[in-house]
């Protein structure tokens, strides 16, 4: 830039800053500068091109780089409260571990119950199977809750009943499950719907969080009633991921390896880890065959859900209902999966179940 242009640039900047000083409570707009500024538009435009750039060079607004940095900073600050509660929940995964030291283990595995959206016949068969089989381990593999009120799907606010949904999960699923299997270890692996619940609670105003915590003594752990049901909560995802892509990646970190040979992952990507195991999320039964030097030939099952199939907004008619009994030899690390489809009937260990008229 020539000395003449540099001098003119400095002169323009001094002039617009003087206008701002004269009108400290108003942004210097183009119209205001036309009225109060001393530099003609034909002169400043030849230096800066646009009035927006004129203001940037004068320091009246942030540069593009500054704005980008501040936007990134704001994104990280906006999720700090997620990270705080996220650290707490990671400590809830080993509060109620149980091991009877038996060589052969039976695992009852289920996925995608979705609170009041549960298929009532599926629930009856699952609870009775739990009582009869007395599994060593019960794994609720994500999405115990639905909470469509917090989802991207359109839900009529007049139909919202969040309290009913949470109470149903506790009173109709978890409490009967614990009563049926008092000696079993129960794990709830965090699914995308549990993330939805925890993020909603973290987003509430500080005043509301203070009332729940200080006045009523409630925490997220209390809301999940982990102590009451003697249940572990398995979560490794970073709730502070702020892009939708990163959030999906983080949820995929919620999985657990049992007995060094059985992997349980909420999503089907778990089949790529090289272990026998099962997943959910997609509400459809599928089986993949794998091989490893450690386990030989093995199977990965994607279980059907416990959710009723009339959710037309998700093409629920294409879903399948089911759960699994997994039998593990902890010495040889062999895993046999017994998948139980639930349609208008179900058969578990020779016991037949038939769907009732109200189911």
Write up what this structure looks like.
The structure is a single chain. Helices cover 39% and strands 19% of the residues. The chain has 359 residues and is an alpha/beta fold. The chain folds into 2 domains: 3-61; 88-354, Purple Acid Phosphatase, chain A, domain 2, CATH 3.60.21. Helix 1 packs across helix 3 (41-48), helix 3 (41-48) packs across helix 4 (51-57) and helix 7 runs parallel beside helix 8. Strand 5 (255-258) and strand 6 (262-265) form a beta hairpin. The chain is built from 13 helices and 13 strands.
Provide a short characterization of the protein structure.
The protein is an alpha/beta fold. Helices cover 39% and strands 19% of the residues.
The residue-averaged pLDDT reads: 84
Q: State the share of residues found in helices, binned by percent.
A: 25-40%
The number of helical segments is: 13
Cross-sheet strand order for the largest sheet: 4-3-2-1-10-11
Q: Low-confidence parts lasting 5 or more residues at pLDDT below 50? A: none
Radius of gyration: 29 Å
What fraction of residues sit in β-strands? 15-25%
**Which second-level CATH architecture of the largest domain applies?**
4-Layer Sandwich
Major sheet characteristics = 6 strands, mixed
CATH H level, superfamily name of the largest domain: Metallo-dependent phosphatases
In angstroms, what separates the terminal alpha carbons? 81 Å
**Can you count the beta strands?**
13
The domain tally reads 2
Shape: elongated
Compressed to H and E, one letter per element, the order equals: HHHHHHEHEHEHHHHEHEEEEEEEEE
């Amino acid at each position: 830039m020539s000395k003449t242009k540099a001098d003119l640039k400095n002169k323009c900047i001094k002039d617009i800053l003087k206008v701002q000083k004269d009108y400290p409570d108003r942004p210097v707009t183009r119209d205001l500068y036309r009225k109060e500024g001393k530099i003609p538009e034909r002169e400043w435009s030849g230096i800066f091109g646009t009035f927006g750039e004129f203001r940037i060079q004068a320091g009246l607004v942030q540069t593009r780089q500054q704005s980008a940095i501040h936007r990134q900073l704001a994104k990280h600050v906006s999720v700090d409260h997620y990270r705080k509660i996220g650290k707490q929940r990671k400590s809830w995964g080993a509060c109620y571990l149980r091991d009877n030291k038996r060589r052969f283990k039976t695992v009852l595995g289920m996925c995608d119950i979705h609170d009041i959206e549960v298929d009532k016949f599926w629930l009856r068969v699952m609870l009775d199977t739990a009582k009869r089989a007395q599994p060593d381990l019960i794994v609720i593999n994500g999405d115990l809750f639905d909470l469509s009120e917090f989802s991207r799907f359109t839900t009529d606010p007049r139909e919202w009943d969040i309290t009913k949904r949470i109470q149903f999960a506790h009173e109709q699923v978890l409490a009967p499950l614990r009563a049926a299997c008092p000696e079993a270890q129960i794990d709830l692996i965090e699914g995308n719907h549990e993330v939805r619940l925890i993020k909603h609670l973290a987003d509430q105003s500080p005043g509301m969080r203070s009332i729940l915590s200080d006045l009523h003594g409630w925490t997220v752990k209390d809301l999940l009633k982990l102590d009451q049901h003697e249940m572990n909560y398995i979560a490794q995802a970073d709730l502070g991921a702020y892009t939708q892509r990163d959030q999906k990646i983080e949820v995929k970190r919620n999985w657990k390896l049992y007995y060094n040979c059985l992997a349980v992952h909420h999503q089907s990507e778990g089949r790529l880890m090289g272990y026998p195991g099962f997943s959910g999320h997609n509400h459809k039964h599928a089986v993949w065959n794998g091989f490893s030097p450690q386990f030989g030939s093995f199977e990965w099952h994607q279980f059907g859900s416990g959710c009723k199939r009339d959710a037309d907004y998700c093409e629920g008619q294409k879903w399948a209902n089911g759960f699994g009994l997994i039998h593990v030899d902890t010495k040889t690390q062999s895993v046999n999966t017994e998948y139980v489809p639930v349609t208008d009937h179900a058969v578990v260990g020779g016991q037949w179940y038939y769907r009732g008229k109200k189911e």
